[in-house]
Write a structure and sequence with these properties.
The chain is α/β, with parallel strands linked by helices and 350 residues long. It is 26% helix and 25% strand. The strands form 3 sheets. The chain has a 9-stranded mixed β-sheet, sandwiched between helices. The protein has a 5-stranded mixed β-sheet with strand order 2-1-3-4-5, sandwiched between helices. The protein has a two-stranded antiparallel ribbon with strand order 7-14. The two termini are 28 Å apart. In the N-terminal section; belongs to the cytidine and deoxycytidylate deaminase family.
Length: 350
């Protein structure tokens, strides 16, 4: 393996540690190498905190070594003042002579300006090392800035005979979830929730399951809850309105007197392309990734409009015989794994 690739791979490993905490900033990883030895490492702090380059440079014990070191980073160092000063300025100030970058930053405030600033300071810059791997690593950030929409993940569980929900008469009188998957699969979903910025469901899912849409079975933050409620059929007693987590309701009702206090409302035209409008709303809220958890009509809307990036499909061992049929999606199979009695297939939209 080429030496630059080795260290960029380490940067990607480090960057993963920021998953679920850095958004809308990218989860960047960075290492500082001197004479073939890593002397500093860092990754992006939770949103509002230090960037990866700052954390990596600060971790170097002997700062005199920086002037003869190489800095590796998954994404182009920023060149503008945001919540923190420009990383390109910090690198230049320490006279680091060589910077190796996995991927150019598509953000309009950076977009090559960080690279140019480094070159102007006399720094040698190498760009495009393991670019494909870095693009996958930064897929949420790139979707937001290149496609002007969040990275969209579809998720559902279906029975062995292809249903995502039973017939209405099979449901309990209480509006609680009717589980298809096992405990371990459900815990994995809570992990996923903690990794994405938002989670989205439709009206019927809330009416039938009364979900909390939190990451309570995993040690991580709760995602922003997004609920499609065209006619405002949901009431304040549903868990999604418990105000423990930011909640956005997307509706066509413009009468604010019908809105629940403490909940954000966005109005769209449900007779037009719903998924496209939802993505526009989420983009306006600076949401870089969303986990779509159903139900079938909601999932199918994103599939129909081809506005999805990953599909994560559980198949349980139970059978319903009848009920709500699972969505149909075409894509490339990324992986298939067994979780005890459940099978998880992850597909990508190529």
């Amino acid at each position: 393996m080429k030496i630059h690739q080795k260290y960029i791979l380490r940067c990607i490993q480090l960057g993963e540690k920021g998953l679920g905490t850095t958004a809308p900033n990218p989860m960047v990883g960075c290492v500082v190498v001197h004479d073939g030895e890593i002397i500093g490492e860092g990754y992006t702090s939770p949103y509002g905190g230090s960037h990866a380059e700052v954390n990596a440079i600060n971790s170097v014990k002997n700062k005199k070594l920086l002037s003869s070191s190489t800095l590796y980073v998954t994404l182009e160092p920023c060149s503008h003042h945001g919540k923190t000063p420009p990383c390109a300025d910090l690198i230049a100030a320490h006279k680091i002579p060589h910077v190796v970058i996995g991927l150019k930053d598509p953000h309009s405030k950076v977009a090559g300006k960080g690279i140019e600033k480094l070159k102007q300071s006399g720094c040698e810059v190498t760009v495009g090392v393991l670019e494909k791997d870095c693009r996958w690593h930064h897929k949420r950030f790139l979707s937001f800035h290149e496609k002007n929409r969040p990275f969209v993940i579809l998720k559902w569980a279906e029975t062995e005979d292809g249903f995502i929900a039973p017939e209405s008469n099979k449901r309990n009188s209480e509006p609680e979830p009717f589980w298809i998957t096992n405990t371990y699969s459900r815990q994995l979903v809570h992990k996923w929730r903690s990794e994405e910025q938002a989670i989205l469901v439709g009206t019927n899912t809330v009416l039938e399951d009364n979900p909390k849409l939190t990451s309570r079975n995993w040690n991580g933050k709760n995602p922003i809850r997004v609920v499609l409620d065209r006619a405002l059929r949901l009431d304040i007693d549903h868990h999604v309105f418990d105000k423990t987590v930011k909640t956005i309701v997307i509706t066509e009702v413009k009468e604010s007197r019908k809105y629940i206090e403490g909940v954000d409302y966005e109005v769209i035209d449900f007779s037009e392309s719903i998924a496209k409008q939802v993505c526009e709303v989420l983009y306006w809220h600076s949401i870089t990734s969303v986990l779509i958890e159903g139900g079938r009509m909601t999932l199918q809307a994103f599939i129909h409009e081809n506005l999805w990036d990953e599909a994560r499909i559980f198949k349980g061992s139970s059978q319903f015989g009848n009920g709500v049929t699972a969505p149909k999606v075409s894509g490339s199979v990324w992986s298939i794994q067994q979780i005890l009695s459940d099978q998880l297939t992850i597909m990508t939209n190529d």
